[in-house]
From TrEMBL:
Pfam families: HTH_18. The keyword Cell membrane does not apply. SUPFAM superfamilies: Homeodomain-like. This is Helix-turn-helix transcriptional regulator. The lineage of its organism: Bacteria, Bacillati, Bacillota, Bacilli, Lactobacillales. Keywords: DNA-binding, Transcription, Transcription regulation. One of its GO terms (molecular function) is DNA-binding transcription factor activity.
C-alpha cells in the first residue's frame, strides 16, 4: 500500500493527471482511432478498450473529447 501512496502523487505531479485519468485518456485516444478507422459498434469499441458499459464509455468520451463518440464519428466523415 505504501508504494501506491508514493506513486500516485509523484505521477500526478509529473503528468498533471492521476494514474486512472491517464489510463482513461489513453483508452479514449484508442477509441477515437477505432471510431475513425472502423465501423465497429460503440459497444464493441467500449469492450475492446476496457469500459464496463457503453454508457460509461459514452459519458467518459464526451467528458474528455467534448462530443459523443457518435458525433465524433459523424464529424470525421465530413
Amino acid at each position: 500500500m505504501k508504494l501506491i501512496h508514493t506513486l500516485n502523487p509523484a505521477f500526478k505531479s509529473k503528468y498533471n493527471l492521476t494514474i486512472n485519468q491517464y489510463i482513461r485518456h489513453k483508452k479514449i485516444l484508442i477509441s477515437k482511432n477505432l471510431l475513425f478507422t472502423t465501423q465497429l459498434t460503440l459497444q464493441d469499441i467500449a469492450n475492446l478498450v476496457g469500459f464496463n458499459s457503453q454508457s460509461y464509455f459514452v459519458s467518459t468520451f464526451k467528458l474528455i473529447v467534448g462530443q459523443t463518440p457518435s458525433e465524433f464519428r459523424n464529424n470525421c466523415k465530413k
